[in-house]
């Protein structure tokens, strides 16, 4: 009788084999999903970091050049800044100095003069239309906006640069 029982339990049934395959497949799919989700988030964070670094680089170069010029050599237009013979403008997602790229991932570039005596917090800086003679010739506002992230939000970096010595 013992011998008969041992012969019946030698292998797995087809149902047991299919159940094991389903369980293994679910585990593999779960691990793969976690890996893909992590990789997608890492790529997104890397892109956002690149945009932020480009904005900081562009603002640093521009600020340095503005402060090194004589204030009388600064000409301000809405999307263009002339510093003596140097021209800053944004085109095709890049901040350009004399046509050469300074920083990438730029969605928009604005530069203007603030009203005389105006005091702003950094989050309030904006280029608004001014009445002639109301502009402060010793300061400029520079606003760089980066390309949008996956959530559709973009980074904005702004600064008021004082050109008085």
Automatic annotation (TrEMBL):
One of its GO terms (biological process) is establishment of competence for transformation. It is found in: Cell surface. Keywords: Competence, Membrane, Transmembrane, Transmembrane helix. This is Prepilin-type N-terminal cleavage/methylation domain-containing protein. The keyword Transmembrane helix applies. The chain crosses the membrane at residues 12-37. Pfam families: N_methyl (PF07963). Its main location: other. It comes from Edaphobacillus lindanitolerans. NCBIfam families: IV_pilin_GFxxxE. One of its GO terms (cellular component) is cell surface.
């Amino acid at each position: 009788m013992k011998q008969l029982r041992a012969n019946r339990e030698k292998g797995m049934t087809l149902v047991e084999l299919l159940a094991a395959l389903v369980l293994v497949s679910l585990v593999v799919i779960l691990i793969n999903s976690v890996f893909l989700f992590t990789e997608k988030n890492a790529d997104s964070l890397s892109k956002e970091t690149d945009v932020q670094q480009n904005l900081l680089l562009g603002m640093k170069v521009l600020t340095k050049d503005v402060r090194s010029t004589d204030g009388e050599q600064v000409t301000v237009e809405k999307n263009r800044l002339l510093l003596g013979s140097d021209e800053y403008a944004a085109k095709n997602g890049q901040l350009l100095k004399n046509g050469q790229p300074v920083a990438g991932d730029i969605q928009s570039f604005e530069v203007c003069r603030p009203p005389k005596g105006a005091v702003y917090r950094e989050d309030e800086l904006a280029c608004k239309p001014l009445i002639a003679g109301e502009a402060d010739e010793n300061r400029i506002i520079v606003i760089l906006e980066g390309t949008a992230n996956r959530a559709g939000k973009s980074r904005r970096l702004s600064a008021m640069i004082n050109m008085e010595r």
